[in-house]
Amino acid sequence: MVLTVRVQPRAGRDEISGVTEGAMKIRLRAPAVENRANEALCEYLAALLKRPKSAVRILSGDRGRIKRVAIDGVTRQQIEALLLFEA
């Protein structure tokens, strides 16, 4: 499953805050320095979807706020349920 994510680093807490312009908006406490926000994003999505961290990888956008993320072993329904539950 590949999805588009918009990341907001240095937030008050890690959370999914809805959908913005077709991308899932995720707020992360980690700063956008030394790849920390990207690592936090992968860890956060893996924990929410109960997948190993190695199942989540950033395909593109690793230097920007908008990223394409691939998650192995999940379905579209699981992502939609996550949006409904978390956002």
What is this structure's SSE topology?
Layout: E1 2-8, E2 15-20, E3 23-27, H1 36-48, E4 56-60, E5 66-71, H2 76-86
Parallel strand pairs: 1-3
Antiparallel strand pairs: 1-5, 2-3, 4-5
Q: What structural keywords apply?
A:
33% strand; Conserved Hypothetical Protein Mth637, Chain: A; 87 residues; alpha+beta; globular; single chain; five-stranded mixed sheet; 28% helix
Q: How helical, in percent, are the residues?
A: 25-40%
CATH topology: Conserved Hypothetical Protein Mth637, Chain: A
Mean pLDDT, all residues: 94
What proportion strand? 25-35%
Major β-sheet profile = 5 strands, mixed
- Output the number of helix runs: 2
Tell me the domain tally. 1
Trace the largest sheet across and list its strands: 2-3-1-5-4
Elements, N to C (H/E)? EEEHEEH
Distance between the termini: 19 Å
Number of strands: 5
CATH class descriptor: Alpha Beta
Query: What is the architecture at the second tier of CATH?
Result: 2-Layer Sandwich
- The class by helix and strand makeup works out as alpha+beta
Uncertain spans: none
Query: What is the name of the CATH superfamily?
Result: YggU-like
Indicate the radius of gyration in whole angstroms. Answer: 12 Å
The best one-word shape is globular
Description:
The protein is α+β, with helices and mostly antiparallel strands. The chain has one domain: Conserved Hypothetical Protein Mth637, Chain: A. Helices cover 28% and strands 33% of the residues. It has 2 helices and 5 strands, in the order βββαββα. It has a 5-stranded mixed β-sheet, covered by helices on one side. β2 and β3 form a beta hairpin. The protein is globular, with a radius of gyration of 12 Å.
